[in-house]
Amino acid sequence: MLQIRGLTQYYGGSNVLRGIDLDVPRGSCVALLGRNGVGKTTLLRCIMGMLETRSGTVRFDGKDLMRLSSFERARLGIGYVPQGREIFPRLTVAENIAVGESAARGPTAPPEELFALFPALQPMKGRRGGDLSGGQQQQLAIIRALVARPSLLLLDEPTEGIQPSLVKDIERVLRLLQESGMTILLVEQYVEFARSLAQEYAILDRGEVVGHGRVADLRPEEMRRHLAV
Predict the structure, then answer these.
(1) pLDDT (tens digit, 9 = 90+) per residue, 72-105?
(2) What CA–CA distances, in Å, run from 199 to 85, 131, 191?
(3) Looking at the domain assignment, is residue 103 inside a domain?
């Protein structure tokens, strides 16, 4: 479904991504692992067209994305949940969700379907996003991305700063999405969370893919070398 070849990106004179090759097969969950600052968020932003790339290709369902805007990529069926949630704090929960509807290619997901994923948000429809807890904002960011019914979901650190009970809720929802056939590219620091969901992994270090394979084959020594702080 998603195929990345030779992707290179610079911030000024700093080479952040160095010839990234990555495949995300249809219906799979691929975990993108690595320490802070190795280029994981940059890669997701390049996939979404939010950052320019120096070279390389990104193809989605066989279509070259490199000349398309972020909005056009979203309309093709790519949903994005950014690090830090980036909800609109002065808009209500319902209004935040409505913003996500603009990316829809066809009929949007009805409110009852979205709130069934995170029922605690339903009575908060009229509450401003900035008044929610961090975990509730993360849940809102996820359903805002889902309202347009994407076929590929990019998630950047969805468990960051979230209390354990809400992490379980997020894990439950992501598992349901997988069972429904959604493809997921998951950036995650919490390795056990990633291992519980993903079938495949790729490890980034200094802007390069230094390891990849099946999650079941992820070796402890590889985790210590590239993931331990």
Answers:
(1) 999 999 999 999 889 999 999 999 999 999 888 8
(2) 25, 36, 13
(3) no
